[in-house]
Amino acid sequence: MIIASWMPFLPDEASSVSAEVDALYTYLVIITIFFSTLIFVSIVYFAIKYRRRSKNEIPAKINESKALEITWTVIPFLLAMTMFVWGSSLYFKEYYIPKNAEDIYVVAKQWMWKFQHPEGQREINELHIPVGRKIKLIMASEDVIHSFFVPAFRLKEDVVPGPKRYSMLSFEATRPGRYHLFCAEYCGTNHAGMIGWVNVMRPEEYESWLSGGAAEGSMAASGEKMFQDLGCVTCHRADAQGRGPVLQGLFGKTQTLANGETVIADENYIRESILDPQAKVVSNFQPIMPNFKGQISEEQLLQLVAYIKSLGGPGATASTLSNPGGEMSSPQMNQSSGAPNTSAPQSNAVKSTPSTERSAPNESRPK
Ligand code: HEC
Ligand SMILES: [Cu+2]
Questions:
Q1: What is the pTM of this model?
Q2: Which residue segment(s) compose the domain that 82 sits in?
Q3: Pocket of ligand 1 (CB under 6 A)
């Protein structure tokens, strides 16, 4: 707060890390100014004071001083270490992804930012978030490398295409307002136009904005529909009778693979399991899952991820599990899971099992 007001050209400070980034930045600037001045003034002073006065003047022999050598090694070393320790601890603070953050899904493409909230709302080049709550962005690129940059939050994260992983970024906005969003990685002709706004709203405003209509229902509901349309449900059955593993309770679990290694079933693992199923085969299962690369868009993939998260597991949070508004695809589901449930994730996971089973025959009635 304080620093941005007296340092010219700095954008607003609007996230929980902005002030500390500015403090570190100011510290670096002050140290740089101090030493630059010291060096330049000394050069000029010594150049004049010790200038050669006559043609055959020979300088006196200088004996090295250990004490002096040690001093001018140790002091800069300690100074550099303060920058390193402060900088790296702040870096970890900025890029740490907390478990209890609220998800928002992002797809970057030439040349726009697309957002989807778990509740279903879609936005382009505008992002609405609540103030004072931890947000987690799960970001994918449909084409080239882009970079999500909100100067007022002092945060930037590259969004890299490819089957392996999502880019993630977490932050907490501290001041309501409207802040610039940029793409900070040159991404083609209209890179300069890949800009937008982050709207930080008071919680009540945000809730009413959220309830202002998601035509297609929640992301988990769209994901569930795709899960049936793409035939995933034939192999991944909740009753363990399918040829693939049960996905209920998967999210956040430690999964054992056929080669004996273990992996945490996070968003990246789910993504890779769909795009490149052979990369990590679950132990005791055959590598028979077809490859869905090229068949689903990044947006659809994110919906599948949101759906699999909504099936619960140790990593699922209240925000991933809730089905606000009960907009799930089948009327039965409203009754079974529409009631707000704030108890432990396990009980949610158990609850969602029967409802998915029940909605399956409803959606994809084979005969
Ligand atoms: C032909 C049957 C089949 C189909 C269709 C299928 N899967 Fe799979 N899936 C499997 C099998 C078998 C495994 C376990 C072996 C492996 O990891 O490749 C698996 C593994 C997975 C995993 C990792 C599960 C775990 O417990 O770690 C996920 C996630 C997954 N599938 C999602 C999907 C999605 C989403 C679809 C639809 C787009 C789908 N699968 C379609 C058979 C299938
Ligand atoms: Cu871009």
A1: 0.77
A2: 2-48+64-95
A3: 230-232, 234-236, 243-245, 247, 250, 255, 265, 270, 273-274, 277, 281-282, 285-290, 292, 304, 308
